[in-house]
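User: Now give one protein:

AI:
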Amino acid sequence: MVFRHLLPISLVIGFATTAHAAGPAPDSEAYFNQFVRPILESSCTHCHGKDEAKGDLRLDSLEAILKGGDGGTALVPGKPEKSPLYTTTVLEPNHDDIMPPSKEPPLTKIQTEKLGEWIKAGAKWPQGLVLAQEPRMQFARDIKPVLEQNCVACHKADKNEGGLDMTTLAHNLKGGDSSPSLAPFDEKNSLSLVRALLPADDDDLMPPKKKGGPLPKETLQKLQLWVKQGAPWTEGVVLVQKAKSEERPPSPDNIDLAKKIHDFITEKSPEKTAGDMNAYKGMVPKISKDYSMVVIPGGEFLMGSPAAEKDRKEDEGPQVKVKIEPFWMGAYEVTWDLYMPFMVTSDARWKDGAKKDPKPTDTIIDAVSSPTTPYTDMTFGMGQDAYPAISMTEHGALKFCQWLSAQTGHFYRLPTEAEWEYAARAGSTTAFFWGDDYARMGEYAWFFDNADGKTQPVGKKKPNPWGIYDITGNCTEWTLDQYDPKFYSILTAGVTNPWNEPKALYPRSARGGSWDDDPKDLRIAARRSSKDTWKVQDPQLPKSIWYHTNAQFLGFRIVRPLKVPPPEEMQMYWNLGLRNESK
């Protein structure tokens, strides 16, 4: 974001004469914490914080705001009319420079007034405070359905129980017989929220237990955030009673589906021994796209890096000798050509990816859960055809493996850390599969110095000795393991197919370095742990199980073990990305 347009004083002084309920003084830290902080953390810091700073502008600290970005300072204390932090929020909704951007709802009048009053009073900011990020609640998407399905039936013009009509913002602010139903920025004095948070056995619970209360936890979280952020209500909207969302049927993506896919795989995969294995080019029937698999022979190797290796980190050791059974691995990272048809479909889906309207003619392919519609362009303008797919969760990658398995008759999953490192080394014992020479990296890998700030088409660099392209660089790649910095130290020498089975959602292990990494992070032994901040830009609540929008360096490649596991094990692998998802 580049601030360019400043408004004349005559257009911004209106907030100074608007009456508000008694509360903290605009020149106090309490005012900032109650009114300004929720606005900035929900509407500004997602694009202007430590993880992303569009226009070289951060809005998460006072120092950063005063410094500004490409267009100069964002804040002039005492002068809202000279502060783009304020003036860009009161532009016309279709203006190119409005903030938040025009693809999102604008701030409401009360939000911009609070922001302006704070700046006019001197922009008091608690010393040393660095703002976080919160999901922004949008009225039409997040709140309107909740109120229309759970509240309006008993609180409307012709049936205003307790004297309360909840169909308009004005009526909610006025309240009923007790007190205001809604107090923007004030959770404790918003009666409808207070009563919605009561225990299930409380007589004052809203909606009452007999009418569907208490509301689900995630719905209550949305209501709390909405009030905290100023209860933005789209101007002129009058709520209308709506029937509650339909009860969903059980998901067809279950153990019975895994058994059907297993039957298909045992019928279509004839290889039984290592001698039966050959490299092959597979075809995805549903989209008529091919993919290449290379043979990774079984063997043993030293996992990790030696203590003397340049740039080595503690979590890369101690080295331990492990055995790996033969498998196939994708010659290339999974590209958008393959992943996009899995990710974007015409089917309405529940949040877990199951189809809302299954058909009797659905196949085992149709029954596999697929991602919900992405909320932004997941290529981030980096490129699509032949470019690696990025920013999916481990769950998204594993469900793709199931989707591919259901079509091809081969069992696919993600590699373990041990399988990944074994395949990447291809018999080498050096920092890189070509040796220890950092100067040769440009021949084999895309990294910070040569990738032009984005992913690159797969297969443009030299492969490793086993025919695997981009195994280091371009994208960091998901593995199946829980990340544990001390995992190698608990392994027994000679163990076969070691795997640190996940018990929690974070952290999980990814390997290989990326287009955004320095050469040292492309060493084969280098490890990376997943973080919940990889989802920080996700506006949904709860966060999507499909997208890591902040991890634009993250992709995956598939493996196919020679031994076909039983259906229960397949089901476990394909859903491993949701294990302890709430944690």
